[in-house]
Amino acid sequence: MRELAGTAGAAATGALTGIAVSGIWNWGIREDAKVCKDAPSVCVTYYPLYALGLTIAIVLVLVPVGLWISRVRPLQVSVPVCLVLMAYVLLRSGDWLYAPGSPSLQVTWPFVLICAIGPALVATARIRRLQVPALSALGILIVVSLFAGA
């Protein structure tokens, strides 16, 4: 039962990280668009860089703290694996991360779902009887994501 609580906590950590990253990324893009709306030539602002910096900071703080609170052990293995998965998701997400439309719709739910699945599968892989299915599902998700953008 404790392992399943860790899996749920890891999924919540991933979802919370996805919500924060999605909101910040959309804020950066919207602010950039507002400032550059009336620019006749090339417009370069610091908002996308702010969003990128905040995204990296949020991932580096929320993932280790969330996995520690969820008791996903060993942290020496689970934290780096989840950080690599989050970086992979951020690099492969592309248009999923941007939510065009009204400012009230700033979270892209497919991105949040993908962010939640990775840490949940890493936590599930700790459970001996679920290790093979969890690692298989993680491998399938990674392989499918390689071809999703093509």
Query: What portion of residues belong to β-strands?
Result: under 5%
The count of DSSP E runs of length 2 or more, i.e. the number of strands, is 0
Query: What's the overall average pLDDT, rounded?
Result: 83
User: How are helices and strands ordered from N to C?
Assistant: HHHHH
Class by SSE composition: mainly alpha
Walk me through what this model shows.
By secondary structure, the chain is mostly helical. It is built from 5 helices and no strands. It has helices spanning 2-36, 47-69, 75-93, 109-124, 131-148. The radius of gyration is 17 Å and the shape is elongated. The N and C termini lie far apart (40 Å). 31% of the residues are buried. The model has no long low-confidence stretch (mean pLDDT 83).
Write the layout of secondary structure elements.
Elements: H1 2-36, H2 47-69, H3 75-93, H4 109-124, H5 131-148
Helix pairs in contact: 1-2, 1-4, 2-3, 3-4, 4-5
Compact summary:
The chain is an all-alpha fold. The protein contains five helices and no strands. α1 (2-36) runs antiparallel to α2 (47-69), α1 (2-36) packs antiparallel against α4 (109-124) and α2 (47-69) packs antiparallel against α3.
